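Posting this for the archive.
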Amino acid sequence: MKQLLFFIFMLGITTTGYSQFELGKTFKVIPPKPIPPKAKAKEAPKKQDNKDLFAVIPKIDPKDAKPITEDPTYSNGIEPEPFSMIIKKPDFDDPNDALRDKLVNSLEQSLVNRGMKVDPRSLVRIDVNFGDIRTKSKYFDIRCRDFGEIDGDLIKATLNNRDVESRLLLQNQYKTFRITFKEGINTFELEALNRGTLGGNTAEFQIYDDAGKLVRSDYWENWDTGVKGKFIIVKE
């Protein structure tokens, strides 16, 4: 019994010593990690007062403001001229132009006074109605001439809006052309295509039926370009 107790005692001593030896050899104390201080929260930026913003903007007098152009190279300080639809005349007029106009006006007035040219103020500028003609004829022969000075008068003849003579030059002698119309109402027109060199368009005309009988004769004097004489022909 004593031997057993002695053995248990020795065994406990041996185990305790071994355990202490191993612990001192391998165990290390781990120091605690330093805890960093908490970062301070950033302060929100202060709102800028609107009064401070307007205080920074400089005040500009509208009189001192300069025009802003789309061209970034415009920096010569010269203000552009205002836009205008009026065409400027040259600074120096040619004196020959005024003399020429004066001579032309004097010559035209001299021709008017001598009866060699018609005053433009007396030109006929409205269309003329020569009335209605009732007939049983199949056609009309139209005779036209310039009864005044031969100065290049031109006329055009149309029947129901179709050209019969598109450019007839009037001379001293009559020129004849024929119009053939339809049953019922027909519109016949004589138009002055120009003015003569000595005045308005001047002409005399005669209208004959298919039997050679004179139906109508008349004239016009000093027509302006574009003036028309109108006839209504009713074929019965």
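Residues 18 and 66 are 101 Å apart (CA to CA). The longest strand covers residues 214-223.
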